[in-house]
Amino acid sequence: MEEELLSEEKENLPAEDIELVRQQYKELEDKFLRLAADFDNYRKRMVREIEELKDVIRVELIKGLLPILDDIERAFSSIPENSDSNIKEGLGMVMKNFQNWLSDQGVKTIEINNNLFDPRYHEAIIIEESKDIEEDRIEELRKGYLLNDRVIRPTMVKIIKKIKEGE
């Protein structure tokens, strides 16, 4: 029934009006397609920004918790060997649980490889010279951590340089 009415209206409309309606239809269709594409791009951008925000929040949370882990590790290592083993065992369990949680979040400890300083992963705070060593080396003063291969805290190190003969 509608088709009959449309075909009758088409027959009664001048060709110019039909062309005008087609042109308006095409413009509206183009606007609709652009709007749909814009909305899809907006949705994708929002998803990406939300994921980036989650990563920033995770990094900030972990950065805030790392000093607490440092304190727990220092407390654990300062307990004398001949003291009450329950305290050391309990603190060790807390430390291990904390480390496991960090690991579950994708956090890894930065390892010192071949006693070489790497500015991408290490922060030198002391440079010391010594005659008593065979070759240059570095000592870890505070652990550094990576989150998904991104440095969230560099390893704080002391660089010990060998003094060469005649210097």
Structure description:
This protein has 167 residues and is α+β, with helices and mostly antiparallel strands. The protein has a domain at 109-167: Nucleotide Exchange Factor Grpe, Chain A, domain 2 (Roll), CATH 2.30.22.10. The protein is 57% helix and 20% strand. The chain contains three helices and six strands; from the N terminus they run αααββββββ. The strands form two sheets. Strands 1-4-5 form a three-stranded antiparallel sheet. A three-stranded mixed sheet has the order 2-6-3, with no helix packed on it. Strand 4 and strand 5 (150-153) form a beta hairpin. Helix 2 (15-78) runs antiparallel to helix 3 (85-104). The protein is elongated and about 105 Å long. The protein starts with a helix and ends in a 5-residue tail after the last strand.
State the CATH class of the domain at 109-167.
Mainly Beta
String of helices and strands? HHHEEEEEE
Could you estimate the helical fraction of the residues in percent?
Answer: 55-70%
Global shape: elongated
The end-to-end span amounts to: 104 Å
Low-confidence stretches are none
Give the mean pLDDT.
Answer: 87
Write the CATH architecture name of the domain at 109-167: Roll
In CATH terms, the superfamily of the domain at 109-167 is Head domain of nucleotide exchange factor GrpE
State the secondary-structure class. Answer: alpha+beta
Number of helices: 3
Radius of gyration equals 33 Å
| Main β-sheet, spatial strand arrangement | 1-4-5
* Oligomeric state of the chains in view: single chain
Strand content: 15-25%
The major β-sheet equals:
3 strands, antiparallel
CATH topology of the domain at 109-167: Nucleotide Exchange Factor Grpe, Chain A, domain 2
Number of strands: 6
